[in-house]
Amino acid sequence: MITGVAFCPQAPALDPAVGRGLDAELGPVRRACRAAVARVATSGTSLVVVGGTPGHDVATWVMTDAVGHESWTAAAADDGLAGRLDGAHPVAVVVLGDGSARRSEQAPGHLDARSAGFDEGVTAALAGGDPARLAALDGDLGCDLLAAGVPAWHAVAAALGARRFTADVLYDDAPFGVGYVVAVWS
């Protein structure tokens, strides 16, 4: 039984050990991630992390350093996710994923005029607490815009099914030209 979901960016620089000297730019999103994970971690006895960046484990920072939870499980963002989250045991899910990486000329993918609208759709889906809206995000457009979170968002939306949540968006901005949203579903 899923008791809550926290959505956080997956950027390696969120880990202060990697993103040294970036407190001004990343301090607000780091604080929002800590708050989001802390809120759902109290609601479930098991913690499952979905998504993230290969090569650097942002999940370790979020779960251990940021909120002090050393016991959690990583799950692949695939078709089998629903089966791993289904059951009578309470589970809190932490979803790691970035929005568009094309929000400015300095962004990793350079500017694409479609990126702001795409990220507005991501924020609206997360603010709505509706997995169907999250599932409806255009995966092909997300790929064009280097939105690395789309596979994890789609997998979690499929796992949650028709359930509705109370949503709270804690952060929505694009430092470094990459869309970062932090939200909680409860």
Automatic annotation (TrEMBL):
Top-level division of the source organism's lineage: Bacteria
UniProt name for this protein: Catalytic LigB subunit of aromatic ring-opening dioxygenase
